């Protein structure tokens, strides 16, 4: 990948479900998973979105975006958190975006 | 009752930038702490973090993290897991506990400084969470290390290290005082959250957890990777600070990154390098130190700084060459001066281990093999004394680590070059060109005196190895020694010992 972005997840029971949710939320995108045992790199090109709704399908109806913070040891790119979603995107994407164009989740 | 979403209320409670009427702004945010420099004060109004968190979210998540970490500890406390860990791996953890516990506390002070003097309320808010994070890290690291004191007194250095004038903590204090205690908050945000926590801590807290898990130390792997989840969040103070600084003063931004990158790289070569490539049992090594550096620093961190519009540091070629040499030389130095350590460094140069080192580092045998052969042959000749130190190494006036970096000259020979300069009537020694350059640019800084400076000034008495060890706080029950000489020398027993000076001397005499 030229500009990989995405989370590094620490060991735990829910890693596979988070990866499945990322794949669901980013259809058509190649999601690379590098498993190093105690941590797993999950990455896609330029921008990955992960929504609370999809996470709840896999991890229960009370799962919140901030709960992901307990699993994410690191990440590549810029991370943007809202109540509904978390986004990892290339850091320079915002600088290159036309004025007034935000980066909605 | 439905709760408002965070986005609907956070800005009203977080963005509390007061306009002062009874005091001058300079009195509240003095330049020497707030450090705006060439950046107009108005520019800081645009500072905004992307990784947002509220206090209720923070408390809920941190509670989960703590419960999880302590649950694993409690479950393993009654098992014999610790007793079966390899001595080399245990040394990695002793080095970590001693080297990290109170650095975390220094980071509390750094975060508090940003929470007080940061020039935007959102930044101060984030730093407040950051200092709570670092307090957790200081506590959990101290507590987890303290658990093992009853099994091994070397773990007492979890709490003791930073209070001692041992050469390792002097080096670390020099680095982290410069990174966390001395700078104004703008430089601090670039040095600590951006350079150190976005880059280097990943190596010690995430990459090393892969080796920890392989080595069977689930508790340690769980603790360090839990700590790094906090770093992943509060390190994001660096990004918004960087964006503003790059726009108004890119030269300053690049300099702060460069010098802290170099200092961190030197420290990690001394501590993380030997842990990954020597102390972790061969069968449990997930990747080499160089491979982990390539993954986390060269690919991930450098990609990040280039994305912010900056360049690779000026010393890049020297740094890249050092990936094949620094930590090997430092490992040999740590092993040779092993009585000065609070862990048991294992040499780890058996034939299988050397095969692995040659595979990962094609020049390893050429540069280090013959030196280890001398040591091996001395030990196989029952002359361990010949492998013990009687003098001190030159320590670098910048990084405080031994000057032991092998460099290949144009004629192909490997040597340890002398890097020195004379300033104000005194000659200073350095381990590398970049350490010398950084020292020169920062020469008005108050750097810690190296152990050699202290020795030559007569601060260490008596001026012999015993006096030095006492000065450094080493007592016989914690003094480092190789945990198992036979493990890495038996492959070579009985071979012709051509490389040792000691064999030529009459029995009973020492040589080195």
UniProtKB/TrEMBL annotation, chain A:
Transmembrane segments: none annotated. Signal peptide: none annotated. Keywords: Monooxygenase, Oxidoreductase. Coiled coil: none annotated. Pfam families: MmoB_DmpM. InterPro entries: MOase_MmoB_DmpM (IPR003454), mOase_MmoB_DmpM_sf (IPR036889). SUPFAM superfamilies: Monooxygenase (hydroxylase) regulatory protein (SSF56029). GO terms for molecular function: monooxygenase activity. Belongs to the TmoD/XamoD family. This is Monooxygenase. It comes from Streptomyces antnestii.
From TrEMBL, chain B:
Pfam families: Phenol_Hydrox. InterPro entries: Ferritin-like_SF, Phenol_Hydrox, RNR-like. It is an enzyme of class 1 (oxidoreductase). SUPFAM superfamilies: Ferritin-like. Keywords: Monooxygenase, Oxidoreductase. It catalyses: propane + NADH + O2 + H(+) = propan-2-ol + NAD(+) + H2O. One of its GO terms (molecular function) is monooxygenase activity. It comes from the Bacteria. Its EC number is 1.14.13.227. This is propane 2-monooxygenase.
